[in-house]
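Appendix B, example 12.
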Amino acid sequence: MFRIKESHSVMRNDQKVQKEGRLSSVATAMLLLKCFSDEHSELGIGALSRRLGLAKSTVHRLATTLLDAGMLDQNKETGKYRLGMTIFELGMLARRKLDIYNEAKVFLRELREKTRESVNLAIMRDDSLIYLNSLESPSAIKVRSHMGMRLPPHCSAEGKALLAFSAPEDIARIIERGLPRQTSNTITDSVAFINELKQIAERGYATDYEEGEIGVRSIAVPVFSGDNEIAAAVGVSGPVQRLTKRTLISYLPALSRAAEAVSNRLGASHRYAVSGLRVAK
């Protein structure tokens, strides 16, 4: 009887080790996929090995498995890897299932028709700004889309609109991590940034005068969820040649109506009204 029990115990331990090994491989595979970014869209085995701190043989085995599954694609000329179409398809599926994305679509289209400029829908995730949707301007000269990208929130109208209505601890965490300069207009001083957020909360909208990218101006307002918490931001952006500060402010009524309509669709009871509009000096 003792030998039988010992045998069963050994089998259970082996199964546990195998299960933990499989889970470890899955976790490592996820970390490998997260190595890719807009700045590093293609990476070789050596670069992935250094980023993950794993042997090249292990990384090559994982990459081959992900390649077979369509999670990765390989550049035939360089041999480097990039995210595959399966990742794109899963991302699109996840985005379609997001209520805020679905509820905002029709209002974003209407806003673009009224302004003839690029219109954006952004959210905060893990202290980064993510553009869920970006409808480009029909004009020949327009700003580039950031849809799906993770960007710092402190230097865009959408990011500042989100932060202005976020919890104090969330704002403090962003500031503690630093406010890196993107252009000469980026607000990098913590005191000045806090004052900027206070002004945004008071007036109900945020502006970006070439703070994130030279040649681009934007304006954004908050969107609230069913529990009246900040959920997203809707913004209008365009080139400085067309968007004077006064022109940006003129978009506020249409922009606010769109954001309020999305908030209502999300169940928010909070109705946000922009009052006392004025051009910032």
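The CA atoms of residues 228 and 269 lie 7 Å apart. The chain is about 45% helix and 15% strand.
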